[in-house]
Design brief:
The chain is mainly α and 326 residues long. The protein has two domains: 43 residues, no CATH class; 219 residues, no CATH class. The chain is 53% helix and 7% strand. α8 packs across α12, α9 crosses α10 and α11 runs parallel beside α13. The longest helix has 21 residues. The N terminus is likely disordered.
């Protein structure tokens, strides 16, 4: 195969920057490596338009391949987690998820929404419409609109194909994901593929996307909220509550791939006029939807009652004195 170097890639700089991800091109050029010519064509042909924001991004794997990996990763995670049995909360998660999926650019995916019983304040969505919410984040959500803010953000990662974008970058920059076309099982690159999809192989571990992906997911999530009839202003209030809950634990933004909560709230505030316009024009309005704080407080009381009802552990019996001892 013919090998072509930095000089020819440099001559194509303007076309690449204009037609795809200029930041990634600069990252690639900083490597100063010789690149096979097929990768140059991939950079031209692998550019896709993100729904809603209409940003151009580099994606080198097929949608079908991405969906298959997402479904497999989802099943692997669910095998290790404990699913909630709370019927009321499951119904709320399912209802909010279905309404967001219906107004998304991909309503015909095989959407699944699972509630995982865990104190972790976490959520994720994988390619193919596979979404999971952890019960630990529900008190911060407080109501359906708060939950829609979280789910809309996670669904946005999936429909914007952020996992595929990250896999494509890794494929070119490191070659670690060359085997991504195969199944996750018995794949020596399983950890790298799972990480690119936004989840780790450790139970409950979700990995951050880039700051630009996070900001784009916030923008798409607000739009989905408004189209589904939920008050998009609750997204700002949710992040305010989340920020107060974890005060003192935030790393400086320069050290984090997530925007800081302050930056995120400012960005959401900037995007709200557009989202509110969509919301006001929507004849279907749920507002904040159902509050589930009562359900959560009832659960907590029930857990406390169950603990208090448990019989105390038997006190160990003192051994009998030896013969001749008193």
């Amino acid at each position: 195969m013919a090998i072509i170097g930095h000089s020819l890639l440099a001559r194509n700089r303007k076309v690449l920057v204009d037609n795809c991800d200029g930041r990634f091109y600069n990252q690639l050029m900083s490597r100063k490596r010789f690149i096979p010519i097929f990768l140059i064509f991939s950079l031209f042909l692998g550019c896709v338009t993100t729904p809603v924001t209409e940003r151009r991004s580099l994606v080198l794997i097929s949608f079908e391949q991405e969906v298959a990996l997402g479904e497999e990763a989802y099943n692997e995670i669910l095998k290790k987690e404990t699913l909630s049995l709370d019927g009321q909360l499951i119904t709320i998660v399912e209802r909010v998820g279905r309404q967001l999926a219906a107004v998304s650019p991909m309503p015909h995916l095989k959407w699944e929404f699972k509630l995982i019983e865990s104190p972790q304040k976490n959520a994720f969505a994988l390619p193919g419409g596979k979404v999971a919410i952890y019960t630990g984040i529900l008190p911060v959500c407080a109501n359906e609109a708060g939950l829609a803010a979280v789910m809309g953000h996670e669904i946005a990662h999936a429909i914007a194909r952020h996992g595929a974008q990250r896999m494509s970058r890794s494929l070119i920059l490191t070659g670690l994901l060359a085997a991504a076309s195969s199944s996750l099982s018995n794949n020596e690159n399983q950890k790298e593929i799972m990480a690119a999809l936004g989840v780790g192989t450790t139970v409950g571990l979700t990995l951050p996307f880039s700051r630009s992906n996070e900001s784009e997911a916030d923008e798409i999530g607000l739009t989905l909220m408004a189209k589904a009839g939920y008050d998009p202003g609750e997204a700002e209030r949710f992040w305010g509550r989340f920020s107060k809950m974890k005060q003192g634990s935030n790393p400086p933004e320069i050290l984090s791939t997530h925007p800081t909560d302050t930056t995120r709230i400012q960005d959401i505030r900037r995007l709200l006029p557009k989202a509110n316009k969509i919301y006001r024009a929507n004849p279907l309005k749920h507002g904040l939807g159902q509050s589930f704080l009562y359900i959560l407080s009832r659960r907590k009381m029930q857990e406390m009652n169950n603990k208090s009802a448990q019989p105390p552990l038997n006190k160990p019996i003192d051994p009998a004195p030896a013969p001749g001892q008193k």
